Amino acid sequence: MPRENAKARHARMHEEYAILCETYPHPVCALNFTNPFELLVATMLSAQTTDKQVNKVTPELFSRYPDARALAGANVQDVERIIHSLGFFHTKAQRAIDLSRALLETHDGEVPSTMDELTALPGVGRKTANVVLGNAFGVPGFPVDTHVIRVTGRLHWRTDWRTPHPDPVHIESEICAVFDPADWTDLSHRLIFHGRDTCHARGPECGRCPLAGTCPSAGIF
Ligand code: SF4
Which of these, 93, 108, 167, 219, could form a disulfide with 80 (CB 3.0-4.6 Å)? Predict the structure, then answer.
């Protein structure tokens, strides 16, 4: 592929995103939630496991502990029992309780709706904050997870695509600079869908990928 300047790359990114929009017309958060508190806790629990696994445990968790006040006063062993199947359950149970206590102390039990306030909470990083902002509050957010890192790298959507361990904050700022803020959350969902469905970590299915016509990495695996 000839060397591509920034203008051409940005144009290709928009073309490829249009294809992703056709391929995944209904981008939604895969975690089940009914309010910002549930999404915040569910996202925290989703580290190192799948959203499907989290969705199996959260109905019991939120029926016993429906808000920050209830979870802040929970018995840690009871929370561990409920989330046991997720792995790292000791750490996650304590983190969920600590997070709820912080929400109670600093925000009267409500989940804040700004990046700075969210990332000031214990155990909440930019990825979790962006998930909550974009999906619970409708505030533009671009969560960068392992699928987003892999797919944007293979597509050369970012200039550091050769870097083995790129900085998620840099990825977020570089990709967000090219797209309208109104698209950020759905763009992240669609990249995640594509990573799960086709552009797998091992054995990407380039032969049936709708982006294969322009993807610089098509067929090189
Ligand atoms: S062509 Fe292959 S490497 Fe490129 S996005 Fe599609 S599956 Fe991934």
Answer: 93
Active site residue 197: no
Told to judge if 56 belongs to the known catalytic residues of this protein, a careful annotator would answer no
**Mutational pocket test of ligand 1: of 147, 206, 208, 214, the residue with most ligand atoms within 8 Å of the beta carbon:** 206
- How confident is the model at residue 90, as a pLDDT? 97
- Residue 221: its pLDDT value, please? 81
d(CA 67, CA 37): 7
What pLDDT score was predicted for residue 1?
A: 56
Q: Where in the chain is CATH 1.10.340.30?
A: 36-136
The pLDDT of residue 79:
98
Look up residue 116 and give its amino acid. D
Cβ neighbours of residue 106 closer than 8 Å, sequence gap 6 or more: 120, 121
With a 6 A CB cut-off, is 144 part of the ligand 1 pocket?
no
pLDDT mean by block of 10 residues, the chain; 221 residues: 86 98 96 98 96 97 98 98 97 98 98 98 97 97 96 97 94 98 97 97 96 95 81
Query: 167-203 in b/e burial notation, b at 16+ Cβ within 10 A?
Result: ebeebbebbbebbeeebbbbbbbbbbbbbeebbeeee
Q: 6-28+143-208 has which fold?
A: Endonuclease Iii, domain 2 (1.10.1670)
Fold of 36-136: Endonuclease III; domain 1 (1.10.340)
